[in-house]
Specification:
The protein is 20% helix and 37% strand. The protein is of the alpha+beta class and 146 residues long. The protein has one domain: LytTr DNA-binding domain (OB fold (Dihydrolipoamide Acetyltransferase, E2P)), CATH 2.40.50.1020. The strands form two sheets. It has a seven-stranded antiparallel β-sheet with strand order 2-1-5-4-3-7-6. A three-stranded antiparallel β-sheet has the order 8-9-10. The relative contact order is 0.12.
Length: 146
């Protein structure tokens, strides 16, 4: 892949992707660029933050509170889990259990369990469980159905 950056004082920022064919990688790159400036409001230790969605590992609901996890930080979100799920790109953010939404781009590996759940290891080494209720849907989404 070749990357070029050109400056043009006459126009705003424009990102074009030129490719021989549209692949899963090019679609993922487009989704990443589309979400580049997308943010979620959150707070930590009394301070407010705008969290870039590309930095989110997963989002969890615990005792009617919503938490957003990034590498190294946990934020309390203003919105409920279902509200965030509606906002986020469904091809990137996947409801993997009743209380968790995971960023598929942050999954490093998947391992099936005998219980038909799937263990997902994230890029930071953290492990989350994809419940068997959502496992079939995940396999279809990432092309592992068989």
């Amino acid at each position: 892949m070749e990357v070029k950056v050109k400056t043009d004082i006459e126009s705003g920022t424009l990102v074009e992707i030129h490719c021989k064919e549209i692949t899963g990688e090019t679609e993922r790159l487009k989704r990443y660029i589309d979400r580049f400036d997308e943010r979620i409001k959150g707070s930590s230790e009394g301070e407010s933050y705008n969290i870039n969605v590309n930095e989110i590992l997963y989002i969890e609901s615990v005792d009617k509170k919503t938490f957003v996890y990034t590498s190294g930080h946990v934020y309390s979100a203003e919105k409920r889990l279902y509200e965030l799920e509606e906002m986020l790109d469904e091809k990137t953010f996947f409801r993997c259990s009743k209380s968790v939404i995971v960023n598929l781009d942050k999954i490093k590996s998947l391992r099936p369990e005998v219980t038909r759940n799937i263990r997902a290891t994230l890029v930071n080494g953290e492990v989350i469980v994809i419940s068997r209720r959502y496992a079939v849907q995940l396999k279809k989404l990432i092309g592992l159905e068989g």
